[in-house]
């Protein structure tokens, strides 16, 4: 059993489900006045700050490994 199948776009606060992550973000921002953390590199938006941090780390590693191959 994998635990990765959990990225259905469900709102933490009201358990409403959305088809896309973008819709969930729009909902959280509009209905809950949730501050959406944004990646400074690519502008991608995240519901949780920890998701953004994880993404930023991955992006940094990608960059580093690219530089390594070169
Ligand atoms: Zn909600
Ligand atoms: Zn990014």
Model description:
With 70 residues, the protein is mainly alpha-helical. It has one domain (10-69). It contains two helices and two strands. It has helices at residues 21-31, 49-69, and strands at residues 9-10, 17-18. A two-stranded antiparallel ribbon has the order 1-2. The radius of gyration is 15 Å and the shape is elongated. Mean pLDDT is 89; it is low at 1-5. It binds zinc ion (2 copies).
Low-confidence stretches: 1-5
What separation lies between the terminal Cα atoms?
38 Å
- The number of E-state strands comes to 2
Major pleated sheet: 2 strands, antiparallel
Task: Indicate the proportion of strand residues.
Answer: 5-15%
Radius of gyration: 15 Å
Taken in chain order, the helices and strands follow as EEHH
SS class: mainly alpha
Coarse morphology? elongated
Bound molecules: zinc ion
How many H/I helices? Answer: 2
The percentage helix is 40-55%
Count of folded domains:
1
Trace the largest sheet across and list its strands: 1-2
Mean of residue pLDDT? Answer: 89
Summary tags:
2 helices, binds zinc ion, disordered N terminus, mainly alpha, two-stranded antiparallel sheet, 70 residues
Task: Write a short abstract of this structure.
The chain is mainly alpha-helical. It has helices at 21-31, 49-69, and strands at residues 9-10, 17-18.
Chart the SSEs and their pairings.
Layout: E1 9-10, E2 17-18, H1 21-31, H2 49-69
Antiparallel strand pairs: 1-2
The chain binds zinc ion (2 copies).
